[in-house]
Specification:
The chain is of the alpha+beta class. Strand 8 and strand 9 form a beta hairpin. Helix content is about 35%, strand content about 15%. The strands form 3 sheets. Strands 1, 2, 6, 7, 8, 9 and 10 form a 7-stranded mixed beta sheet that branches. A two-stranded antiparallel ribbon has the order 3-4. Strands 5-11 form a two-stranded antiparallel ribbon. The chain is built from 9 helices and 11 strands. It binds 2-acetamido-2-deoxy-beta-D-glucopyranose (3 copies). One 2-acetamido-2-deoxy-beta-D-glucopyranose binds near residues 234, 235 and 315.
C-alpha cells in the first residue's frame, strides 16, 4: 500500500511538470497506446480528450491531498479515464436492485466458532484471475460465478473459472438482461434450473450479448440453492466470508473516486449505502493501520485498483452498502 502511494505521488509530480500542451499531448498519446484506445473520428477523439483531462485534474488533486494524509487511497488514470461517470454507470454498472424479503435470510453463524482477524481466500486458491467485463453490464454474472467458483473449488479441490457469457446469453428467461444488466440471485436461479454452467474456457467471454450455446460438454459448475444474508449486517457478512468462502455483494460504485480507484483503503464520506448499482465479490477482509477493510474482487480488469481488487472500508456504517445484498450459493 505504501508502495502505491509512493508511485502515485511520483506520477503526480511528473504530470505536474507537464504544463505545456505538447507535454500533455505526449502523456495522452502514451495513455492511449497503453490502453489501446482508437477513436472513430476527430469529434469523438476531442471529446474523449476533454473528459480525460478533467479526470486527470481530479486524479492530481486527489493524490496531492492523499500525500498530505487527507485520503487513505489514491486514484489513477486507468482505462476508464476517457469516460464520464454517467457513461460508466450506464454501461458497466448493470446490477438490478433485488426485490427480496430479507427476513428470509438463511445464514446461521456457527456457534462457538470465533471469526478470524483476517481472511484472504486468494491464498487458498478459491479466487480465479480478474477479468474485464468491458462495455457490458454483466457485473452480476462475474460476481455470481466468482462465488460459485469458490464453492466448486472447496468441493472438488480444483479451481475452474466459470462462464459469465453463459449467464449473459442464456438467463433471460430467469429475468436477466444480458449486457443490459441482471441480478445475482437470478444468475444462481439459472444455474439451478439449467442443471449447471459451462467453464470460461469452453464458453469464453465476448463483451456482448450472444446466442445461448450452453452445452453439458462444457459443464464445470452447478448449485442447488443460494442464501441471502441479513441486510446491512457487516458482522454476519464477515462470519459468512470466513466460514463459507467468497460471497457475492452489491455496492454503490457510482462515484468517480470508485471508477478511478488506484490503490489503498477506499473510504469516502459520501458513498450512499442505498444507491446500489454494481455487483462484486468479497474474497476476504482484514485491518490496515487500525482501519478494517473488505477485500473485494471487481471485474474491470487488472489495470483498475490493486491488480483488479479494491480494499473497501469495513465496519464504517455499511460503506457503499456492501452488506445490503450479500448472497452465496450452495452446491
Ligand atoms: C464519431 O464517432 C462517434 C462514436 O463512434 C459517433 O457516435 C459519431 O456519430 C461520429 N461522428 C461523425 C461526424 O462521424
Ligand atoms: C466496529 O467498530 C466499533 C468501534 O469502532 C466496534 O465497537 C465494533 O465492535 C466493530 N464491529 C465489528 C463488527 O467489527
Ligand atoms: C420466499 C419466501 O420464503 N418468503 C417468505 C419470507 O418470510 C415471510 C415471513 O417472514 C413469509 O411470509 C414469506 O412467505
Amino acid at each position: 500500500c505504501r508502495m502505491h502511494i509512493l508511485c502515485a505521488v511520483l506520477l503526480s509530480a511528473l504530470l505536474a511538470l507537464c504544463h505545456s500542451t505538447s507535454d500533455l499531448n505526449e502523456v495522452w498519446s502514451q495513455w492511449k497506446i497503453k490502453h489501446r484506445k482508437d477513436y472513430d473520428n476527430q469529434t469523438e477523439s476531442a471529446f474523449r480528450r476533454a473528459v480525460w483531462e478533467k479526470n486527470m485534474q481530479l486524479v492530481l488533486r486527489h493524490n496531492q491531498e492523499a500525500s498530505e494524509g487527507k485520503h487513505s487511497f489514491t486514484l489513477g488514470l486507468n482505462h476508464l479515464a476517457d469516460m464520464t461517470a454517467e457513461e460508466i454507470n450506464e454501461k458497466l454498472n448493470g446490477l438490478k436492485v433485488e426485490d427480496f424479503d430479507f427476513r428470509n435470510y438463511t445464514f446461521k453463524e456457527a456457534n462457538g466458532l470465533s471469526t478470524p482477524q483476517s481472511v484472504d481466500w486468494r491464498k487458498n486458491g478459491l479466487v480465479s484471475p480478474v477479468q474485464n467485463q468491458g462495455l457490458c453490464g454483466s457485473c452480476w454474472a462475474f460476481s455470481s460465478m466468482g462465488a460459485l467458483e469458490g464453492q466448486m473449488k472447496k468441493q472438488t479441490g480444483i479451481l475452474v473459472p466459470l462462464s459469465p457469457q453463459n449467464l449473459v446469453d442464456c438467463s433471460t428467461n430467469d429475468g436477466n438482461y444480458g449486457c443490459r444488466g441482471g441480478y445475482i440471485s437470478k444468475a444462481f436461479s439459472y444455474v439451478i434450473r439449467n442443471g449447471g454452467v459451462d467453464s470460461e474456457r469452453f464458453y469464453p467471454y465476448e463483451h456482448q450479448n450472444g446466442k445461448c450455446r450452453y452445452s453439458t460438454a462444457g459443464k464445470a459448475g452447478y448449485c442447488s440453492n443460494f442464501h441471502i444474508l441479513p441486510q446491512g449486517d457487516e458482522k454476519t457478512l464477515q462470519a459468512a466470508v470466513a466460514s463459507v468462502g467468497p460471497v457475492s455483494v452489491a455496492v454503490n460504485a457510482m462515484l468517480p473516486s470508485f471508477h478511478l480507484y488506484r490503490g489503498g483503503l477506499y473510504n469516502v464520506p459520501n458513498c450512499n449505502p442505498m444507491l446500489i448499482n454494481h455487483a462484486v465479490l468479497v474474497v476476504g477482509y482484514g485491518t490496515d493501520r487500525g482501519q478494517d477493510y473488505w477485500l473485494v474482487k471487481n471485474s474491470w480488469g487488472t489495470a483498475w485498483g490493486e491488480e483488479g481488487f479494491i480494499r473497501l472500508a469495513r465496519n464504517k456504517s455499511n460503506l457503499c452498502g456492501i452488506a445490503n445484498f450479500a448472497v452465496y450459493p450452495t452446491l
